[in-house]
Amino acid sequence: MSLNPAVPDAEKTSSKDLLDLKTVINHLGALKSTSPTNLERVCQEICTPSSVSSLQHHLDASFLLDTDVVTLIAELSKSGYGRQSLGFLLPSLVILVKNSEFAPKTIRQIYRAIGNLCYENDAARQLVLDNGGIPVLLDTLRTILQDHSIPERDLMVNTAVGCVNNVSNDHDVCQEALLNSGYLNVLADILSDESLPSCHRSAVEQLNVLADTSMETRQQIAHLPVASGLVSFLKTGDSEDYLEDIVDLLSTMLISDNAVGELTKRDCLEILVGVIEKESTMESVLASAGNILVELTARESLQDGPDSEFLVAEASLWLAGIKDKAWLRTVAALVIGNLSRSEAACQRNYGLKPDGKRTIPEVLLCILGETVNSPSASKSSCGNDQPEVDPVLQLQYALLSAVKNLCTPEQVRRMVLPYAVFPLVKVMDSFDQRDISKHEVPVVAKLLALTRMFISTAPASDQSPTPRSFDDGQLAKFSFKYGTTSGLVEEPLKLLCAMVKSAESRYRLVETLVNAGLISFVNHLLISDLQSRVGAIVFLSMLLEKDNVASLLKRELLESDFFKNLLETAVMPLLKPDVQRIILLLLQKLAADQDLKARIKEIDLSFLLDSCREYSSNPEMCSLVEELTLELES
Length: 634
Fold this sequence. Notes:
InterPro entries: ARM-like, ARM-type_fold, RAP1GDS1. GO terms for molecular function: guanyl-nucleotide exchange factor activity. There is one protein chain. The chain has helices spanning 21-32, 39-46, 49-60, 67-76, 80-86, 90-96, 104-117, 122-130, 133-146, 153-168, 172-180, 183-192, 200-211, 215-222, 227-233, 243-253, 257-263, 266-277, 283-297, 306-321, 326-338, 343-350, 360-371, 375-378, 391-406, 410-416, 421-432, 441-455, 472-482, 490-502, 506-516, 518-526, 530-543, 550-559, 562-570, 577-590, 594-601, 606-613, 619-633. By secondary structure, the chain is an all-alpha fold. Among the domains are: 1-167, Alpha Horseshoe (Leucine-rich Repeat Variant); 182-302, Leucine-rich Repeat Variant, CATH 1.25.10. α12 (183-192) packs antiparallel against α13 and α25 packs parallel to α28. The model is unreliable at 1-17 and 377-387 (pLDDT under 50).
């Protein structure tokens, strides 16, 4: 908005043109009784050239300045026409705001006038900046903060902060000038002043606005010594209307170790828990407070001790008692998982029974099974068609993560195993019935990792069921399906390797894997990226390690492009010698079958063998080359 006041030359303005105080008061009365829809019209009627010039004369004669004159400017500036007509008064107002001889109520109205004139008006903001207004506004605000004798001091502080906000909002240069003038410390002083409870909201809102301007500013805000004070606001009735702003600011401060140190004190933790448990709190506030707890419990300082035990006990109660808030159960599961990262913590937390009957892992797994019946968990999703992560997916990920951490000690895994199989298989079935979206990839990866942990668990001698209660065919199909999904190759291969290591009968397992589509899966990996190719080769080599099972793969190997794909992988320039050695061993095992040997003979292995012979310093490699050569010649 341009500043284009209709102001006559001062020389042509006679004393009879000046607005007298009675007229000023009349104008104020007209403005205050005007509805918002008529404000523009009334302002146009008042802002005649002579009236506007008269207001400038009143400001110039500052020793006679009446509060009503500045109040009139503030009220007129609430309209677009008023801001355009009166913007030229800003240099004079900037000078007047630092006049310590004025009554506090006059200073307040000057702040109002400057703030209203700068509302959504970059030209006015620039005028304040050019006339050195930023440091002046802050110096006067500092004076107000230091003088506790000022009447209605809280009202003045709020007005001054509002004025500064209007001057700087969405104006990068003004915001930079504010920060350079120490505005963050001024806001911190307001938050630390217990005599200004009604000003805390405006200070919090301003800090949140500034936190979004740059990472540097966010870091400066995070280091302000106000974290514990902000938490204390959460338990006062005065803060009900801006709880969301408080938790947003606390979230910003988590990047500071000093702030985290304050927030991890027991009294702060208890207040955060109290906010979460308060039924009347807005859901957005509850979620933000919960996220803060999750962030705090991820820190090393909270891993052991009474505070950790307190938080796990509270979170376990949320799991058992709240069924209609998926996000709160998500927070509870993440908190428990974060605080179960040592063996001692896992053993201690396993012993808790939130509902008086079931252990925490049992409750977590029971909830995991229930998520499958949620409408949002059963519908098919298609990546971009679902921009926000499904809360049920978030809950599933949190539950799986918590169980995985709790079951790190083998002793705990053995105790959890009897009631882990059913919910894991149930969730696996739900994913197996559809194509997954990118948001579901982390959940499937976590599901595979947890299943692998249980597959690898050695059962107690008197325990039933055993890890083989998982169906190998189902696990194989699930692993093959999602082992070809971007970002998921590693976990399916790890699960398959765990199945091989724990198999009671390697022969029967290979039969199951072949029927589930093993060779198609391996061939897919052998034409993928290098890491996937290597994973497939290592897994297949492990599978054929003993029990002479190569013949079970014969038909699928001969009828597919397996050997072609294997050779293309073997001659890749970035392939490491260790992988070439595994390929030699794999070919040697396959060559034990006469039909497979005949197929291998048809392949030109000269490049691979010559490449391996170059490692003459490695006797094992040279020996493998000779053994394979002799095997193929026999």
